[in-house]
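Class prep. Sample record?

___
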Amino acid sequence: MTQHRDTRIDVLRALALLTIFIDHIPGTVYERFTVRNWGFADAAEVFVLISGASVGLAYAPKFAAGQRLLSTVKMWKRAGVLYCAHIMTTVATLTIFCGAAVLTGNTLFLEQNNIPALIQNAPEAFVGVGLLGHQLGYNNILSLYAVLLLFAPLMLWCLGRSLRWTLAGSAALWLAAGIWQIAPPNYPTQGFWFLNPLSWQLLFVIGIAGMMHVRAGGSLPSSPRLAWLAAIYLAAAFLWIRSPLWGHVTWLGLPPVVGGFDKTFMSLSRLLDVLAMGYLVATVPAVSRLLRVAPGNGLAILGRHSLPVFVAGTIFAMLAQALKLQGGPSRMQDFLLVATGIGLQFAVAYFLEWLAMMKKRQRDVPHGLASARTA
């Protein structure tokens, strides 16, 4: 089946995963070259947009009358897997930082990544972890994705009736959540989820809708004028974040969701930034051809096994953070940590690819023997 697979989404997903990994080891020189240093958005927005497109590709064609219940169960099962993966990375993060504190006697490890609440108020904090109300730093994108996937059947049902009205309703929810600061609360600490599902659902819905529109025979409006507008916006964002203008919460007295750069409620500036990138990738033929690689390409393999790769990358990034905290700044250490982490992610992907190939061969052997006996 892989020979007919469109690898462009796999490659984009792989690039997003590698970028997230590098960003999850702050303080290295390599993070200067990631997406978040090019404009207002970062790899998290790219990942959610691609995830929406993946849902539109994998589940939308099967979400038809008579198959909706089965498709819903499959999406909810996947959401459950994402929840378990989130809990696993949370426990691994706690093990790494608490273990480092025990081994070194340095309590600074216990002050990182939202860990203090678990030390100071353990019973309530562990309830929060289980209910997703307390999320550790750099461990919050899987919880967002799990919630979005939980509501994906409703999104697909609405999009199947009207792409336009569903997108309008999704945008209205995004705007209302941003203006009135509506989001799932943290527990037991104050504040909201770092990535608010009520805001980020818009990007997810746009990804699903775009894929459904294309699969139905439609196409994105392609014109030199739109391409130039997208390119100009990206260039302006690149210059803005390097100017004295960067750093303001909002402009012109507008709510931050409209006039600012807030990530929790995904401000308009960030939304337009990732959509401009997505538009250029989808409509510029040279970029599309560059992303369409052979199924055996390393990036394609990495993208096909995105969840275990992401989990491995997150756990190693937490280990790298602890090592950097103990050892201090070092260019050589940064290189070794980033290179080892990327190598580990590719190793996990290639191992899973090999395992899938072995399982396929085992399935094919009995079929071949049965055919030989029949002959």
Remarks:
- The chain has a mean pLDDT of 93.
- Residues 25 and 317 are 6 Å apart (CA to CA).
- Residues 2-374 form one domain.
